[in-house]
Amino acid sequence: xxxxxxxxxxxxxxxxxxxxxxxxxxxxxxxxxxxxxxxxxxxxxxxxxxxxxxxxxxxxxxxxxxxxxxxxxxxxxxxxxxxxxxxxxxxxxxxxxxxxxxxxxxxxxxxxxxxxxxxxxxxxxxxxxxxxxxxxxxxxxxxxxxxxxxxxxxxxxxxxxxxxxxxxxxxxxxxxxxxxxxxxxxxxxxxxxxxxxxxxxxxxxxxxxxxxxxxxxxxxxxxxxxxxxxxxxxxxxxxxxxxxxxxxxxxxxxxxxxxxxxxxxxxxxxxxxxxx
Amino acid sequence: xxxxxxxxxxxxxxxxxxxxxxxxxxxxxxxxxxxxxxxxxxxxxxxxxxxxxxxxxxxxxxxxxxxxxxxxxxxxxxxxxxxxxxxxxxxxxxxxxxxxxxxxxxxxxxxxxxxxxxxxxxxxxxxxxxxxxxxxxxxxxxxxxxxxxxxxxxxxxxxxxxxxxxxxxxxxxxxxxxxxxxxxxxxxxxxxxxxxxxxxxxxxxxxxxxxxxxxxxxxxxxxxxxxxxxxxxxxxxxxxxxxxxxxxxxxxxxxxxxxxxxxxxxxxxxxxxxxxxxxxxxxxxxxxxxxxxxxxxxxxxxxxxxxxxxxxxxxxxxxxxxxxxxxxxxxxxxxxx
Lengths: 276, 337
What we know:
The structure holds two protein chains of two kinds.
Chain A: E1 7-16, E2 21-28, H1 31-36, E3 44-49, E4 53-58, E5 68-74, H2 78-83, E6 91-98, E7 111-117, H3 121-133, E8 141-147, H4 156-164, E9 169-174, E10 186-187, H5 190-197, E11 204-209, H6 212-224, E12 232-235, E13 251-252, E14 255-256, H7 257-260, E15 263-265, H8 266-270
Helix pairs in contact in A: 5-6
Chain B: E1 3-7, H1 10-19, E2 23-30, E3 33-39, H2 57-60, E4 64-71, E5 78-81, E6 89-94, H3 96-110, H4 116-123, E7 125-130, E8 156-160, E9 165-169, H5 172-180, H6 189-200, H7 212-218, H8 223-229, H9 237-241, E10 248-255, E11 258-265, H10 286-305, H11 315-319, H12 326-335
Parallel strand pairs in B: 2-6, 6-7, 7-8
Antiparallel strand pairs in B: 1-9, 2-3, 4-5, 4-11, 8-9, 10-11
Helix pairs in contact in B: 7-10, 8-10
């Protein structure tokens, strides 16, 4: 076994999310690994289709689910095109878990704002499920989620549950033009809706993930509202090949996203040179 | 303190090792240039060389290597590990700047997760370097904290002196080889000291490098980058000849239903290096990509591992098709400190 050797996962469910995104639920083939495997919310893995290559993706399932992991994939490039055409029973290669995680324990006793854009939700879903699992440890839990259009919202099944739940305040939005006549959410870009929401920074933390530009603007809005940069967490999705701090691709300034991240505070990111 | 022993010549080392049928890698003349190649007889070797075209990097971290075999013909893909065993090897007569590159790469391939392919090759190889007796104006090892007779990364360093050759035995592997070569006679430390003095005079290109990381950190947006580095055409030749550059790609290369997953050299100066599948590229201009190369070598790597990611071998300068001179960029930075 070398550090580049993947473990094998068998696809047990393929859940369509949008016209371009699916969620794969997968079981570990090796029984002892299935028992042993654990990860922390925010960590990622290299998911691979043999003959196509590997792709760095966040583990999107709850850390409390044993023997099984899920990831959500948007069909964009060669590897993601292959992974999104996977069927139940297919075998996927997996290396991980890699990288650091969201410090959910340190957030106990605080208000937690989850703010996501598009497929970016997949990188914070594990943390959200974890917080909801231990709901009594946290004060208020808010999810502000937006996408370009209604179709592009992922985890619609869960969003419907959250609408009815008293455990979480859901604010969903789509970009202008992405709504339909019967859309019951907001219309506007995530940072503008956040502006309207005027979140209070006292005893609060924010967990943000989305496209690079959305992260940058969202962080700026939170800072304007008095959030300290150290209380804003995000996860960066750089291009990564090895996940092991060697291939050099995810290096930004003095950090390797795969080793020092992918989870960073806005305070840490403020120190980065502007080339990520 | 390293042990000093007398040694007949670098050729005698090759002769002994090849007679024992050991795998030996040494400089071989190939037309106008020299290359490191496996050799069977001492007659194939030419130590009267200045510097080999490529470094020895490829013997430890090949330009392309298989890391996994797979076949996808059935419902259950068959995955097979690659062999991670390599024959005992002796590199004879590489330059100190190439030997010094090895500990620099070790840090990358052996921190936290150990790259077994790299480590197995390193573990099975003994490095017998040969101190320089000539240099050109592209050599700048002394500005990188090294010298034409640096012991870094060598198991044995061979030094030409007025009296003949000395073997500076530096490690356990070196001691093992010294006894295999039957080296018994002590060398003179006075002789060694004199050779060090003449070595120190070889390098004429010098600049102050201590302040470089600090300058880089505070001048990311300086006009210097655009001014000096826009001419980079992103061919990555500098990266491929560099003994310390180590970035790589991992790709699947299938043929029908079977194939290999391979680790291939890659370079931060190539546009695709950081391009996202969405089309977004954080380093969208060539000078930004060249800046990354400098930042990584002279700020980020030193911050993490405590040395420069460069030995001053000068290959990148000799090979650049547009005469982008890395030392010139560093000299410019140095002049501003």
